[in-house]
Amino acid sequence: MKSQTFAPLIDAHIHLDQYSPDEQREMLLSFPSQHVEAMIAVSMNLPSAQTNLELAKQHPRTVYPAFGFHPEQPLPPLPEQETFFNWIEQHVGQAIAIGEVGLPYYNRQEAEQAGLSFDQSGYVDLLERFIQLAKKHNKPLVLHAVYEDANIVCDLLEQYQFRRAHFHWFKGSRQTVQRMADNGYFISFTPDIQYEEEIRELARQYPAEQVMAETDGPWPFEGPFQGRMTHPAMTRQVIQAWSEITGMGTEQATRLFYRNTKRFYGLT
């Protein structure tokens, strides 16, 4: 009987800097036994990007940093934005991607439910500048854009003829999904693919050549992951769930996800 030979795992989206130093150390030490090869460490803001860059220097070919501003937080004043963009320009050669960037869907929903107005034009302007930056330096773009926000982002990506887009933990309409797939954009699935029907349905729809696995750690998960620290090795369960949903063998699916992630991010 032929033994299974699984490809290594790559976590396509994790907030490594949000873990404690002890958690980071324990996690990285466990990678060989867990068959984790690498992770894309996305950033929240300038201090986050600086921390991820230092972690990448300490763990080359394991930690690949992406520099960006997470949209679910107050918009920084323009001088702070300038400082951040200047810093990125100085260090962009060490970045695997620009991200996490996007639009504040959840903050906007919360404000509107509380009867407050929410002007996201400043976030759209900031995102447009990040798209321009990614295109200028030919870097992939890691996106936080769900439901109707994804259509605004698609408009901008199409305007700049930019295709190296990765929508992480995506949710949206069937029409938006089709538009993203046709444009060649990638998406990634989190551990909730095991128990969220909306995510499982997305797995049935999206082209197999444009999917990756992520944890979005340290975000905690439910179901079989309840009470556990989110670890890049959980991408193994993500791929297993995807393979069951799509009917592809787990060994073949693991190789597919590995190839897809390396191809999208240009990992050698």
Characteristic key phrases:
268 residues, eight-stranded parallel sheet, 47% helix
Structural summary, described in words:
With 268 residues, this protein is of the alpha/beta class. The chain has helices at 21-34, 46-58, 78-91, 105-113, 121-137, 148-159, 174-182, 197-205, 235-246, 250-265, and strands spanning 9-14, 36-41, 63-67, 97-102, 141-144, 165-168, 186-189, 211-213. It has an eight-stranded parallel sheet. Strand 3, helix 3 and strand 4 form a beta-alpha-beta unit. It starts with 8 loop residues before the first strand and ends with a helix. The model has no long low-confidence stretch (mean pLDDT 97).
Question: How are the SSEs ordered, and which strands pair?
Answer:
Blueprint: E1 9-14, H1 21-34, E2 36-41, H2 46-58, E3 63-67, H3 78-91, E4 97-102, H4 105-113, H5 121-137, E5 141-144, H6 148-159, E6 165-168, H7 174-182, E7 186-189, H8 197-205, E8 211-213, H9 235-246, H10 250-265
Parallel strand pairs: 1-2, 2-3, 3-4, 4-5, 5-6, 6-7, 7-8
